[in-house]
Amino acid sequence: MNSKPLTYDSLKTVILYMDPNTRFLLSTRIPSIRSTEKTVPLKIEKLVIGKHSIGVNQIVYEYQVYQVDCEDKIPYKVSGCSPLDQRWTCDIDEFGVRDCMTNRMPHNDGFVDMALYLENSPTNEGRLQKLKRKLEVEKQRYNQLINYRPKENHTNNTISFENFTKIGLFSAQKYKKENLELLENEEMVKKAIEYTNKRIMQMEKELVLFQSKANNIRPKFEIYVVKELENSEPCVIERVEYQGSIHKAGESLMKFMFAKRRNIVNITNLLSQDDNSSGFKLPRCSWVPPRQPPPQLFGRPRHWQLRQVS
């Protein structure tokens, strides 16, 4: 086998035809070729900018804040969309209080938490007590599910199960008979038990965060960068200390991928899933549609603002 190293020009040719994600991986694993990789034109079929994610072709890089000193040793995600109340969190304070509670935004004035608490909660103590009551109801629901047996055994109904899960989001009562009847077979009941048990565990971890401020405890938080390919298990590729701004992590990831390149980055399909992503700037990028593009899209200035598309 010939072990002769590649020449500089040969290496550039090999890099040119690599998948972009392979190039990013090599840049992290082999620092000696990083500068060479930056000199080779980068072509991306699809770039998707999400709220806390960047998708490059078939791979998504998600960055979220996790509490890493949980009692059960399992990292707990505190940013992103909460499965408990569907609220979106970007940043947290030193005690773990979410910005969706402290920031005064049009859709959330910082005082009303209707989804999880079902009534106005002007103080942290008020939210804590309401969450405790909601947790107690969730445990009662769990016992209902353990004892429930469907009368018939119909095939799985995805819509029925989705409707069942919505009940837990917008109600603080035990299940009624008609609620339980949405679970049409034993398998759906089993899924509901697993779903409810997961919600109970999440609520218990939320209680710990609520009590941190009252007890003057500062939990430890880190940002996890997770690489995910469709139909495969997510993989944590980097952990960094959380210093109060998740968007800085997104900016750092964008810079790693696109900054200091000597050629324009060619992107066939550019999508933005969030208005806030318009703050990101891609160094020297051009959008290259599949068909003949307007000539003004080429030779644009060094930075091109992303715009949301439908």
* Range of helix content: 25-40%
Which whole number gives the mean pLDDT? 82
CA-based shape: elongated
Q: Distance N terminus to C terminus?
A: 52 Å
How many domain modules? 2
Largest sheet: 8 strands, mixed
Count of individual beta strands: 14
- What structural class do you assign from the helix and strand content? alpha+beta
Q: Uncertain regions: pLDDT < 50 for 5+ in a row?
A: 104-118, 287-310
The Rg value, from CA coordinates, equals 24 Å
Order of helices and strands: HHHEEEEEEHEHEHHHHEEHEEEE
* Number of continuous helical runs: 10
Proportion of beta-strand residues: 15-25%
InterPro entries: DUF3557
Structure characterization notes:
- This protein has 310 residues and is of the alpha+beta class.
- It folds into 2 domains: 8-61 and 225-305, no CATH class; 87-219, no CATH class.
- It contains 10 helices and 14 strands.
- The longest helix is centred in the middle third of the chain and has 29 residues, at 186-214.
Keyword list:
310 residues, alpha+beta, 2 domains, 8-stranded mixed sheet, two-stranded antiparallel sheet, 10 helices, 37% helix, 20% strand, disordered C terminus
Record the SSE blueprint.
Layout: H1 8-16, H2 20-29, H3 34-39, E1 43-49, E2 53-56, E3 59-67, E4 76-77, E5 80-81, E6 88-89, H4 99-102, E7 112-113, H5 114-117, E8 119-120, H6 124-147, H7 158-170, H8 177-180, H9 186-214, E9 221-229, E10 235-241, H10 246-258, E11 265-272, E12 281-283, E13 285-287, E14 303-305
